[in-house]
## 1
Amino acid sequence: MPKPRDYEITKRRKIAHGKGSRWCKRCGAYNGLIQQYKLFLCRQCFREVAQHLGFYKYE
Ligand SMILES: [Zn+2]
């Protein structure tokens, strides 16, 4: 379950851009986010689900 990051739940100020404006959809982390291909997963979660999403690991 991802940590609640919704503005309405956390009551924190809305951040338009930069760190804190986007988070991992899977675990809620702010760090190491992958925005490429509209993934919005942190690098740790991406490693776990990449193969399920159809990414293939080379070398
Ligand atoms: Zn994550």
Note: The two ends are 31 Å apart (CA to CA).
## 2
Amino acid sequence: MAGGGSAIRGSRVGAGPMGEADRGEAAPRTRVSYWCKHGHESKPSFAVDAEVPAEWDCVRCGYPAGLDKDSPPEPPIVVPYKTHLAYVKERRTDKEAKAILDEALVARKEERKRRRRRR
Ligand SMILES: [Zn+2]
């Protein structure tokens, strides 16, 4: 019996009293600073042994944030889509504007006819 106990103790030589204490607490974490293009700082925490991602979404504006404060990652470019949408809107507006103008012209003609009849 005593011999068995010492064998178990021997297998635990690598994990000392310090290791036992760490297990009882929360896993050690590290905070990493990410910077977005707006200069916002996001500080998510990661487990020390976890792989830290290269980018993180800014907690304030949602832009991608990087580890390098001086060269934050560019936000996703949506300008081409917006431009196309604006182009479509413009065309639609022009058509609508012309329709409204046509209607107005017809209405004016009708008014003139009515006035002539009255005279
Ligand atoms: Zn931001």
Note: The chain has two domains: 27-75, 77-119.
